[in-house]
Structure formats: C-alpha cells, structure tokens
Amino acid sequence: MNEQIPVITIDGPGATGKGTICRLLAKWLGWHMLDSGLLYRALGFAALAEKISLGDEKALTALAVHLPVECHCDDPNAQTYILLDKQDITAALHSSEVSSAASQVGAHPLVREALLARQRAFLQAPGLVTDGRDMGTVVFPHAPLKLYLDAALAIRAKRRFDQLKEQAINASLPRLLAELEARDTRDKNRRVAPLLAAVDAIHIDTSTLTKKAVLERIEAHIKDHFPQWLPPS
Ligand code: DC
C-alpha cells in the first residue's frame, strides 16, 4: 500500500450520510472513492445465493478469497455498479436480507482479512475517500484525515425510510429501526475490527445537520489543515 497517497476515512453506523458525503467529497477533491460496505454486501449476497451458512467462517473465507466481484464504484462522477460473475447485482444489494447478511459475514475475522487487499487496491493517486466501519482503524490506519459520522437511531431509520420511499420501495419504519439497531449491535461488538471511531477521528453528529452543512464543515477543515489537497482553481 502506498502510504504517500492521501486518504480520508469516513466511518460510522448505517444511514448517517457517510455514502453521500464520501461521494461529494471525492467529487470536490477529484479523488477516487470506495464504499467498502458494497464488498461486504456482495459477499453476503453470494453467500445467500450459494446457500453457505452465514456462520461458516471457513466456507465464507474461501468464497471471499475467490469472489468474482467487480466493483465499479471508485468514480464519484459515475453511477456505481457491482458485477458478480459478470451479472449486475447492484439493485439487490440494499435489501434487508443482504444488509443483515453483510453484517454477519463481516463478523468473521478471516473474512475481513480476505477482503483487506481488495479494499487497499482502491488507494490510487491523487487520493481516496473511503467509507465503512473500520476504514480509519484497520484498513487505512495511516490516513491523515479520519472522520466518524453518527446520528440518533430514530433519525437514521427515518432517513432510510425516506430513501426507500423515494425509490417507491415499501418499508416499515419500526422494522427498519430494529434492523439498523441489530446491525449496529453486531458491528460494534464483533471481536475483530468492530465499528469504532479511531482515536484521532473527528466526530460529527449529523442528527440535526443537512448533508450540505456536514460537507461544508469538512471542506472548511480541509482548507485549513490540508490546503495541498485542494484541486487547482
Ligand atoms: O456501509 P453499509 O451499510 O453498506 O455496510 C453493510 C454491512 O457491511 C455493515 O452492517 C457491516 C459490514 N461492513 C463491515 O463490516 N465493514 C466495513 N468496512 C463496511 C461494511
């Protein structure tokens, strides 16, 4: 991994706005991006399709090592899509079932290790903005700027509900809340690489902030502390 290439890591629980902020920041800087959750989701999807038990660490690790996944997700100006065995599985990756499977496969230490190199391969010049659960603590611990986004559970559930409604997908708010809570608990309590703010992370509570306000706060920090990253105007 080339540690000279700058990385901004964005960690935090689901529906805190990490994905959108990651894309907007990468766009603003002209950098690459990585939504690491998509790799865990693709693996969860493949495990469900192949009927591999989500508790079978050995079989899941073998699946992760050889997973024929292509993540077309590093260009913030292009639509993200994920191919598994050359099939476009993007639309299936955000179902409740796949979200839960992603969190369950991600609880296995050997699975996480198997996905490390694939994530680090996204680190390309001029820089990378990445979002996930362990970006600042495990995958890119040398990142010069680490962010940790959080928001109240009820607000996150409502955001997810509104997103689904916008896509004309029926959802139940109490069920979304319970699913997010179950995922938070599993992601925070796993033995390896739990969801955790890096000691040097900047915390932003997005509960009462618009995405624009969050972005402006981060951009101001970059202008003050990392002016060398700014694209030539
Ligand atoms: O970011 P997301 O909601 O798409 O992630 C889905 C699940 O994948 C999340 O609940 C836990 C797992 N995950 C992980 O364990 N580590 C990451 N870096 C990203 C996601």
Question: Can you describe what's shown?
Answer:
- By secondary structure, the chain is an alpha/beta fold.
- The protein has a single domain (7-218), classed as Rossmann fold (3-Layer(aba) Sandwich), CATH 3.40.50.300.
- It has 9 helices and 8 strands.
- The strands form 2 sheets. A 5-stranded parallel beta sheet has the order 2-6-1-7-8. The protein has a 3-stranded antiparallel beta sheet with strand order 3-4-5, covered by helices on one side.
- The longest helix has 17 residues, at 173-189.
- It is globular, with a radius of gyration of 17 Å.
- 2'-deoxycytidine-5'-monophosphate binds next to helix 2, helix 4 and helix 8.
Topology summary:
Elements: E1 7-11, H1 18-29, E2 32-35, H2 37-49, H3 57-66, E3 69-72, E4 81-84, E5 87-88, H4 96-105, H5 109-120, E6 128-132, H6 135-139, E7 145-150, H7 153-166, H8 173-189, E8 202-205, H9 211-225
Parallel strand pairs: 1-6, 1-7, 2-6, 7-8
Antiparallel strand pairs: 3-4, 4-5
Helix pairs in contact: 1-9, 2-4, 3-5, 4-8, 7-8
The chain binds 2'-deoxycytidine-5'-monophosphate.
